[in-house]
Amino acid sequence: MQAFDMHVHSSFSGGESSLEQLASMAKQLGYRGICFTAYPISKREESILKAEIERVKKEAGIEILLGFEARNIKELKFLAKRRGEFDVLLARGGDLKLNREACETPEVDILTHPEFERLDSGLDHVSVKFAAKNNVAIEVNFREILISNKKTRSMILKNMSRNVKLAKKYHATIIICSGGISHYELRDPKVLISFANQLGLELKEAKEAISKTPESIVKKIKERRSENFIIPGVKVIE
Amino acid sequence: MRGKNQLKFLLPTLRERERYIAFKIISEEPVVYEDIEQAIWNVALDFFGEHGVSKMSMYVIKSLYDIERQIGVVRCNNKSVSQVISCLGLISRLGDTRVIFKILKVSGTIKGLKL
User: Fold this and answer.
1) Of the candidates B30, B26, B29, B32, which has an alpha carbon nearest to the alpha carbon of residue B88?
2) In this complex, is the C-beta atom of B107 within 8 Å of any C-beta atom belonging to chain A?
3) Backbone conformation region of residue A203, classed left if phi is above 0, alpha if psi is from -120 to 50, else beta
């Protein structure tokens, strides 16, 4: 199994650990790749981050991706326009309008924690149908469970289970991420699989959510980077 | 030879199927067995409750804990493997030490773990 963690925050985006610490821990835990998620930053900071990622990529020996996470609709539209300049586009869920907009935007790869700071699950059947149509993966974020407890944790678990149920019903893709902001918040892929199993996914589905779904995202990235790519769905055939 | 006050062995078909989960602790400082056992039980009871834990047949094996390599083994029944692994993932601190549990192997016998 080739596991990927597609949502990790480094010191560049409010996290506590450096890129090296995160990459080496991910390698130790058996990940094939990791995606450093940042919020939209200035061009200068972005070029520094890209240079750092290139440096860490050579040292770490695992695949390293750069993702940007949109925190509102304005940022989402801005990032969608610049989609070719980075690897993964994530939308920070929680706001109902942003959840819906992210599901309706084909450029988005992952909708992160749609139930974030909400009493409900943040997704309805219409949004999930759009997510399935546009190939937007719905994230199950382990960190939300890790940092909460008692009543809050049970509410989050309920909402996650509801999202998983909807995604299964409408064949939307699910992705499991640690969502860690420190290298000590990364988790073994087997732990994430077992956790997803508790939320109602079959073991096979849970394994796919941590390996096959990220792999398809990586494949899309490679296609987008190839010379033959024009726009999504259109490429030059030799 | 079993004594008079001991129960007879159950028939093989009536026995519970066991699974042994080997884990390695990645931490800032070495941690002792007592802290690990306490943390696993606390998390399991918090997350699954007394009724849930009663169905797991969970047991942290003291004799198999290697403090130098930070490797330990938890036993449970075959139906509760994912619950126990989830519990291990929910432990983020042992006292003041931050920890990660890396799952090494799940096996039906201790020998199969190849510790």
Assistant:
1) B26
2) no
3) alpha
Minimum Cα–Cα distance from B99: chain A residue: A184
Find the angle CA(A153)-CA(A159)-CA(A165) to the nearest 5 degrees: 135
Kindly list the distances between the CA atom of residue A49 and the CA atoms of A64, A109, B63, in Å, as whole numbers in the listed order: 12, 21, 47
| Nearest CB neighbour to B92, from listed A30, A146, A188 | A146
Question: CB distance A197–B88 less than 8 Å?
Answer: no
Query: In chain A, how many domains are there?
Result: 1
Give the tens place of pLDDT for each residue, A204-233.
Answer: 999 999 999 999 999 888 888 888 888 777
pLDDT digits (tens, 9 = 90+) for B8-30: 889 999 999 999 999 999 998 99
* Rounded Cα distance, A206 and A216, in Å: 15
* Architecture in CATH of B27-108: 2-Layer Sandwich (3.30)
User: What is the ipTM for the molecules in this complex?
Assistant: 0.92
- Full-model pTM: 0.93
Q: What is the CATH number of the domain that holds A33?
A: 3.20.20.140
Chain B, 5-44: which have a CB under 8 Å from a chain A CB? 26
CA distance B102 to B100: 6
Full residue range of the structural domain in which residue A116 is found:
3-235
CA distances to A42, A52, A53, A60, B94 from A56, in Å:
21, 6, 5, 6, 30
